[in-house]
């Protein structure tokens, strides 16, 4: 099977049962995406598929051979951080770091959703949405951080949102 | 100075106070500063390597098999059927050697072994190893196992026999002083209430994971562990091999909160399977297995009795607690630990009993003791304040004792009253309605609550090696871990300040038992213990550098990688020949006996309770903390945020449900065990009070990783009472418990 | 997860040719794979329908909307027509799951989401829904999240969804393609089945029958809508109870009312008696109490879920105040 990950073509022969997450971690050595629960209940595995954030643990690799998959490794590197990675670092938006790649991929996908004007559960008006702190919190609630860097995560994302306006 | 390849050793035992800390003399100016984590770039790019992520050739995948009875015996496991399943290499079990429970933190022996007897639902009994994870998982789920069902105790009750004769767990099981009954008879105001707290799970985001690989008779285990050095001892004892032959690597650990203090079942299963198969085996616990078969914080029942005179002075405190654990396991939740000294009272009765249940092992979870004990004590104090018609802050300040009332020794440092008073001002406590249930905004009932924070300070023997290389770069190495606590960063900061070497020239290597032995991360002792070891090593290195400069150490100034004496300056690299290195060791001593050492603080919470549904939302929280010197303002703040958020969970949502028919954990996933999500957490505020503790260690710092949770839940519970006038004494405060008492719609 | 044969369907017609009861369609997979990993679901064949051309939202001639079965939850919630005309649906979707899950979960799949009953989820527990005639562990067990309406002695599971609750309030019509190539229209009110003594049979869909679209009829002008969800944490949690309300008023009287409920029953719940108690009435506490009485006349708590009965009463009344208040 052929996969497009972070702009590169990868060949692998996973089981049809293999999730995108296990494809990345166990077959391709891309261990940046994390397995926290394997059931879509924590968000640590979040990647971008065709630009949209999804739980890579809850979708089969075999179903994504035509898709464009971007993981944390594709966003930036230690020498060249993505603005979201830099903001998480500056604001201490993590501690143990295990949920962090998922948080960052989720935040990147979420900002794109916000730019499209998508409302959220806490939007008072479905037609016009400003990305306040509580909006960010709600939209990032699919990413659990047990160390609870939440306040710092919100600050980091708010900064990137401001700067990309 | 001539070159040296020998490693010097130096140690300090904390028998005397350290009035002067060289950190205050450093010229690099990094200590305390909110520097970004040195391991941060790797973590934000997904390139930090956690236990399950070592890409070893020939790696086989193991999935653990659980028992599906709550008590009884495994009659047989059909390993032939397992082996016949597609992709399976082997079904491995060893009924005698597999561990029945995780080990407690810091133990040096094996945990209870033997898995033929099943003591709790979900106990690990075997591991299926396959070429792929998918094949192993499938076979592990379908493996035929035959059981003989036994009779167990599956529901907690105070009517069960209670075991009282227990070895101490950082606090004695039973302690009595004065006469509590008489104090109650003589009191103007009394409180006699019982609080209960449920079992909880640490829910570190990284599930327990081990990769085991053997080189002849030497085992290397890449494991998600907080205390690798004692974990290696536990593993060696379990496997019946010398500890020198066991190496554990825990370079990055995805959270612990106590759940990874001791070895868990996957480590032994992976080690045995790897040995048998002659290839590396990875075993990662499924999230459900983390719930079923690692460790829980015990549920507790806490009878709180407070007796005060008419002015509010406490004359008696009773804190009688009952927790639960498996038969034969000594650990009891030390819920009364800080009741010994938080408040003055001549008469006190503090006790810990255990009820034996067939529930998964109970052990340490973030701030064992205080985290749940302060829910009882600090809510009872709120009840007392209401009974006295006194402000709850005034009540606490009035009862802030000048000396440890239990042991009659001095406190090494204690800023409880200051934290309460400063916090009250910063939080706007004067805007609180003293009468409950009198503030409403639309559907929402608003209230404020306060609670004291306290956590005992500990020092654990730890070593670290610090080396200065000929190029002037410095390496720090130790088996200490960074479980998100910031160890990598603060150890670099300490070395940087002590040696005057820029942060970017310091490399810290952690989590490998081949390096100098440290106690690891737990009990909030990690930063101070390993940090002091680094300090001690650096102090010796400074002496060597001074000798090389031919001056007394006091005359030496170190900054930006150079040693200066007067106007003369020389790069460190030129002073160290082929390099110099020292292993520094810190040991606890008399200071912890002659002084009561603890960190203090105060929590303030504002909540909104929905008058229709009983849903509670935390609107604001402030924590004010004094924990000695703060080594890194940013990582310290993050630790407090994390602790406070644990407090939100313990007050409002977290509860493991045990099925009363089997002891099985019903809500064994992150969908139904509710830890706080981002939307549950408002922008929390943290104020750090300046403090130094010269009795604690040469850093003058105290542990703080657990202080943030201590009392946080109580502040929220007290705020719920203030908002609603409803006192829920059964944690967590879920909406169903408020509903019957809410105003009519 | 048991091994299975994976096939990709190139057309709806090819998909519905798979009529074996051991075949499952997979699109978003967020619920199915979750259950397959636990071997609660053990299909022998997975037919991938995710690439079928069923992901559009179109206006109908009647002024309603036709939603493709593969429209992701997030796209549906954000669709300008849904936001403007069917706020209750948008709100229900946004109250569910997480941003990531909504990006994957589809309209058709979400209608068929299976219960979150703790015992259904664990193959070590007897469960009539998972394995017929093995018993119900939830009765007499811990049942905080389970049903108080529509239960049977064999099953007290709840339907966990949010979107389907709104769709019941909106009188949605589910359009399917059957194995014989014919399509049919099933009112959402007819889609689900009560557990009775066959709790494993949850809908009227036949083996191989594929949901292709969901049609929403137009709503009258001036309609008031809300979705209120009560849960244990502020986000990313299933409903303890929820209310979808669609209501019109004229001259101070309630002229139409459609109320559907989540968290109460084995299906998104709707009861005409509730609406009958409201129709033609001037809003008042007594009228609202009567509506709640009607809803709960057969309610039966199971112990740890008893609280849902007062909770939904209070929540419904608050929702009715909001739906009929002048501030709307």
If you had to describe this structure to a student in words, what would you say it looks like?
The complex is a heterotrimer of chains A (165), B (745) and C (328). Chain A has 165 residues and is α+β, with helices and mostly antiparallel strands. Helices cover 35% and strands 12% of the residues of chain A. In chain A, strands 2-1-5-3-4 form a 5-stranded mixed sheet. In chain A, a hairpin with a 2-residue loop joins strand 3 and strand 4. With 745 residues, chain B is an alpha+beta fold. In chain B, 24% of the residues lie in helices and 26% in strands. Chain B is built from 16 helices and 31 strands. Chain C is an alpha+beta fold and 328 residues long. Chains in contact: A-B, A-C, B-C. At the A-B interface, helix 1, helix 2, helix 3, helix 4 and helix 5 of A face helix 1, helix 3 and helix 14 of B.
Brief descriptors of the model:
heterotrimer; A: 165 residues; alpha+beta; five-stranded mixed β-sheet; 6 helices; 5 strands; 35% helix; B: 745 residues; seven-stranded mixed β-sheet; six-stranded mixed β-sheet; 24% helix; disordered N terminus
Note the gap between the termini of chain B.
84 Å
Number of helices of chain B: 16
Average predicted local confidence, pLDDT of chain A? 97
Please state the overall shape of chain B, judged from the principal axes of the Cα atoms. Answer: globular
């Amino acid at each position: 099977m052929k996969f497009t990950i972070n702009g590169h073509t990868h060949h692998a022969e996973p089981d049809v049962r293999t999730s995108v997450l296990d494809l990345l971690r166990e077959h391709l050595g891309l261990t940046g995406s994390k397995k926290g629960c394997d059931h879509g209940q924590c968000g640590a595995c979040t990647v971008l598929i065709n630009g949209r954030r999804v739980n890579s643990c809850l979708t089969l690799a075999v179903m994504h051979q035509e898709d464009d998959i971007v993981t944390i490794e594709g966003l930036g590197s230690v020498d060249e951080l993505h603005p979201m990675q830099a903001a998480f670092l500056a604001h201490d938006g993590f501690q143990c770091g295990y949920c962090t790649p998922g948080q960052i991929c989720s935040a990147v996908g979420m900002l794109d959703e916000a730019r499209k004007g998508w409302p959220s559960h806490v939007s008072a008006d479905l037609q016009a949405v400003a990305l306040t702190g509580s909006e960010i919190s709600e939209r990032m609630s699919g990413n659990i951080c047990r160390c609870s860097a939440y306040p710092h995560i919100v600050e980091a994302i708010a900064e990137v949102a401001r700067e990309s306006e | 100075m001539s070159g040296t390849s020998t490693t010097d050793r130096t140690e300090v035992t904390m028998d005397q106070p350290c009035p002067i800390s060289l950190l205050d003399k450093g010229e690099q100016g990094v200590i305390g500063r909110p520097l970004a984590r040195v391991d941060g770039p790797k973590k934000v790019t997904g390139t930090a390597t956690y236990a399950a992520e070592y890409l070893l050739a020939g790696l086989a995948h193991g999935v653990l098999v659980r028992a599906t009875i709550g008590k009884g015996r495994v009659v047989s496991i059909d390993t032939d059927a397992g082996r016949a399943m597609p992709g399976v290499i082997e079904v491995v079990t060893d009924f005698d050697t597999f561990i029945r429970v995780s080990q407690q933190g810091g133990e040096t022996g094996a945990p209870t072994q033997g898995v033929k007897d099943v003591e709790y639902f979900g106990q690990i009994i075997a591991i299926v190893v396959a070429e792929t994870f998918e094949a192993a998982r499938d076979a592990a789920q379908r493996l035929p196992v035959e059981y003989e069902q036994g009779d167990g105790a599956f529901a907690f009750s105070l009517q069960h026999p209670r075991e009282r004769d227990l070895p101490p767990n950082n606090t004695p099981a039973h302690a009595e002083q004065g006469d509590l009954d008489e104090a109650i008879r003589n009191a103007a105001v009394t409180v006699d209430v019982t609080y209960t707290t449920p079992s909880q799970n640490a829910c570190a985001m990284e599930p327990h994971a081990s990769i085991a690989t053997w080189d002849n008779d030497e085992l290397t285990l890449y494991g998600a562990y907080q205390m690798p050095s004692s974990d290696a001892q536990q593993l060696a004892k379990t496997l019946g091999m010398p500890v020198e032959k066991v190496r554990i690597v825990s370079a990055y650990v995805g959270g612990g909160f106590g759940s990874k203090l001791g070895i868990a079942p996957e480590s032994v299963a992976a080690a045995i399977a790897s040995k048998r198969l002659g290839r590396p085996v990875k075993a990662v616990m499924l999230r459900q297995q983390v719930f079923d078969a690692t460790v829980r914080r015990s549920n507790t029942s806490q009878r709180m009795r407070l007796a005060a005179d008419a002015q509010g002075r406490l004359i008696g405190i009773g804190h009688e607690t009952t927790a639960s654990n498996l038969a034969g396991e000594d650990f009891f939740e030390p819920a009364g630990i800080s009741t010994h000294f938080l408040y003055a009272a001549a008469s006190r009765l503090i006790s810990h009993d255990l009820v034996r249940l067939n529930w998964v092992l109970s052990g340490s979870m973030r701030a064992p003791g205080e985290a749940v004990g302060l829910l009882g004590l600090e809510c009872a104090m709120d009840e007392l304040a209401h009974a006295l018609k006194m402000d709850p802050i005034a009540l606490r300040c009035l009862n802030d004792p000048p000396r440890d009332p239990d042991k009659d020794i001095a406190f090494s440092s204690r800023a409880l009253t200051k934290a309460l008073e400063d916090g009250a001002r910063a939080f706007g406590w004067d805007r609180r309605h003293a009468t409950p249930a009198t503030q409403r905004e639309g559907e929402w009932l608003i209230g404020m609550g306060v609670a004291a924070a306290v956590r005992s300070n500990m020092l654990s023997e730890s070593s670290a090696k610090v080396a200065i290389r000929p190029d002037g770069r410095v390496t720090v190495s130790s088996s200490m871990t960074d479980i998100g606590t910031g160890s990598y960063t603060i150890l670099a900061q300490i070395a940087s300040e002590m040696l005057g070497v820029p942060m970017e020239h310091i490399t810290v290597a952690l989590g490998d038992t081949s390096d100098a032995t440290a106690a690891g991360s737990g009990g909030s002792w990690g930063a101070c213990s390993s940090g002091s070891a680094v300090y001690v090593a650096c102090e010796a290195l400074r002496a060597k550098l001074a000798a090389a400069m031919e001056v007394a150490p006091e005359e030496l100034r170190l900054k930006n990688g150079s040693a200066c004496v007067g106007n003369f300056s020389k790069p460190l690299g030129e002073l160290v020949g082929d390099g110099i290195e020292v292993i520094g060791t810190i040991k606890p001593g008399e200071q912890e006996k002659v002084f009561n050492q603890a960190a203090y603080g105060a929590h303030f919470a504002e909540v909104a309770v929905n008058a229709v549904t009983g849903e509670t939302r935390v609107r604001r929280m402030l924590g004010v903390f004094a924990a000695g010197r703060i080594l890194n303002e940013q990582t310290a703040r993050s630790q407090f945020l994390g602790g406070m958020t644990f407090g939100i969970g313990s007050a409002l949502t977290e509860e493991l449900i045990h099925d009363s028919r089997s002891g099985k954990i019903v809500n064994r996933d992150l969908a139904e065990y509710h830890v706080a999500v981002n939307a549950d957490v408002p922008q929390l505020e943290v104020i750090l009070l300046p403090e130094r503790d010269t009795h604690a260690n040469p850093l003058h710092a105290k542990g703080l990783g657990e202080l943030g949770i201590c009392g946080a839940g109580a502040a929220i519970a007290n705020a719920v009472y203030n908002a609603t006038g409803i006192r829920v004494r059964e944690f967590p405060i879920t909406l169903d418990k408020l509903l019957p008492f809410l105003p009519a719609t | 997860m048991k091994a299975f044969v994976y096939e990709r369907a190139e057309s709806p017609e090819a998909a519905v040719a798979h009529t074996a009861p051991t075949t499952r369609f997979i699109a978003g997979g967020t619920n199915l794979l979750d259950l397959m990993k636990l071997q609660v679901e053990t299909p022998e064949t997975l037919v991938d329908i995710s690439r079928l051309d069923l992901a559009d939202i179109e206006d109908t001639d009647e002024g309603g909307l036709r939603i493709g079965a593969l429209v992701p939850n997030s796209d549906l919630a954000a669709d300008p027509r849904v936001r403007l005309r069917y706020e209750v649906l948008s709100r229900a979707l946004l109250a569910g799951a997480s941003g990531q899950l909504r990006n994957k979960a589809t309209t058709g799949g979400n209608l068929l989401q299976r219960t979150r009953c703790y015992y259904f989820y664990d193959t070590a527990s007897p469960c009539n829904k998972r394995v017929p005639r093995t018993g119900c562990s939830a009765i007499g067990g811990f049942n905080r999240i389970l049903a108080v309406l529509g239960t049977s002695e064999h099953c007290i599971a709840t339907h966990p969804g949010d979107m389907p609750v709104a769709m019941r309030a909106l009188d949605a019509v589910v359009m399917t393609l059957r194995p014989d190539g014919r399509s049919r229209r099933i009112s959402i009110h007819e889609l689900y089945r009560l557990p009775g003594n066959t709790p494993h049979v949850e809908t009227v869909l036949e083996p191989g029958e594929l949901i292709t679209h969901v049609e929403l009829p137009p709503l009258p002008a001036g309609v008031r809508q809300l979705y209120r969800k009560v849960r244990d944490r502020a986000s990313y949690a299933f409903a303890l109870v929820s209310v979808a309300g669609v209501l019109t008023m004229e001259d101070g009287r309630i002229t139409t009312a459609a109320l559907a409920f989540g968290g109460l029953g084995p299906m998104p719940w709707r009861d005409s008696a509730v609406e009958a108690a409201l129709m033609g009435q001037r809003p008042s506490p007594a009228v609202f109490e009567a509506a709640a009485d009607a809803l709960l006349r057969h309610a039966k708590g199971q112990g740890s879920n008893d609280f849902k009965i007062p909770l939904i009463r209070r929540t419904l009344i608050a929702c009715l105040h909001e739906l009929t208040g002048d501030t709307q």
